[in-house]
Design a protein that fits this description.
Layout lengths: L1 E4 L2 E4 L31 H9 L13 H10 L3 H4 L31 H7 L5 E4 L18 E6 L8 E2 L13 H7 L1
């Protein structure tokens, strides 16, 4: 149900769908059952796909996490913003083929998907790798997210890092994916 309010065309709160975007680095399109994998069981993801929406005609905007995250967050081509390689930059800056310098953070004046959703009355949250700026002022809570838990490192217990202050600590022996799901 749509109505026109002071901020434009909006859905009433009761009619607004919940939005969960699961963004996974290094996952192939056929790595879950709902996209055709018949080897790995993914019942929870399959149920989300059945109850919600699946993207079937899309592609990663970049070959590394930071450029792709930039495109998803901003809705713009990552080259327009200057995030063309993994932040903190190219791992071999002195190669024979020189890549452009990378903008080291998503600019704060870039309108993110979170800011657009907040303008439509949504509450927003971010859990997982950010890779769009390392300083405290470039974290998700400064890019429109009401709640954020920046978590990085491997999935093994005791090996990943929770970088957001005020976020609960993982239980001893808890895998990263379990911890992220509990948030």
């Amino acid at each position: 149900m749509f109505f026109v309010g002071s901020t434009g065309l909006q859905l009433r709160a009761a009619d607004r769908p919940n939005i969960i975007l699961i963004f996974i680095d290094d996952m192939g399109w056929k790595d879950v059952a709902c996209y055709g994998n018949d080897f790995i069981d993914t019942p929870h993801i399959d149920q989300l796909a059945t109850d919600g929406m699946r993207f079937t005609d899309s592609y990663a905007a970049g070959a590394a996490c930071s450029p792709t995250r930039c495109a998803v967050q901003s809705g713009q081509n990552q080259a327009r913003i200057g995030i063309t390689a993994h932040i903190p930059g190219h791992w071999r800056p002195f190669e024979r083929v020189i890549t452009p310098l990378t903008t080291m953070a998503l600019p704060l004046d870039t309108v993110t998907v979170a800011e657009a959703l907040k303008a439509s009355g949504y509450s927003t949250g971010y859990v997982g790798n950010w890779h769009l700026g390392n300083g405290p002022r470039f974290q998700p809570d400064h890019q429109g997210y009401d709640f954020s838990a920046v978590i990085s490192g491997p999935h093994l217990p005791g090996r990943y890092r929770v970088q957001s202050p005020g976020v609960q600590k993982p239980r001893p022996g808890q895998y990263r994916t379990e911890f992220e799901a509990d948030l």
